[in-house]
Amino acid sequence: MTDADLLRSLGVDPSQLDPAPPWTPRAGAERLDGSHPCALCGQPARATGAVDVPGYGRRWLDRCMPCLTATTPRGGPRGPLADTLAVLREVARKTGVPLTIVTDES
Ligand SMILES: [Zn+2]
User: Fold this and answer.
1) Model confidence pTM above 0.70
2) What's the 43 CA to ligand 1 centre distance in angstroms?
C-alpha cells in the first residue's frame, strides 16, 4: 500500500496535512506534545509519521492512539485461535514457563 493509498483509505486529504521536513532520526518527536490534532477525529495526536504523496511531498500524518490502532493493518490474516494457543502451549512446555491464557473467544 502506498502512502497515497493509505490516505485514501483513511479518507484524509493530503492537502490538509502539515508539510514534513526531510527524514531525521528524531523527526516527529516534537509533534507529540498534544498540540497537533488527529487527522481522523481531531483529538490530540499521540502518534505521527511522515507520508510522501506525489504532488504534495512529505506530510505529517498525526493520529491519536485509538485511531492509529483502529487503522493499522494487523500484518496478515489471522489464524485460528486454537492453532495460536497450541503454539503458545508448546513453547511454554518446552521452556518450562507457566502459561495463563485469557481470551474473549470460546
Ligand atoms: Zn483520532
Assistant:
1) no
2) 6
Identify residue 21 by its one-letter amino acid code: P
Q: What's the CA gap between 86 and 61, in Å, rounded?
A: 39
Distance from Cα 44 to the centre of ligand 1, integer Å:
8
Report the chain (106 residues): mean pLDDT per 10 consecutive residues.
91 95 82 91 92 95 92 70 79 84 60
Ligand 1 centroid to Cα of residue 46, in Å, is 9
Neighbours of 56 (CB within 10 A): 17
Segments making up each domain of the chain, as ranges:
3-71
The Cα–Cα gap between 15 and 6 comes to: 14
Q: Where are the alpha helices (DSSP H) in 1-106?
A: 3-10, 65-71, 81-95
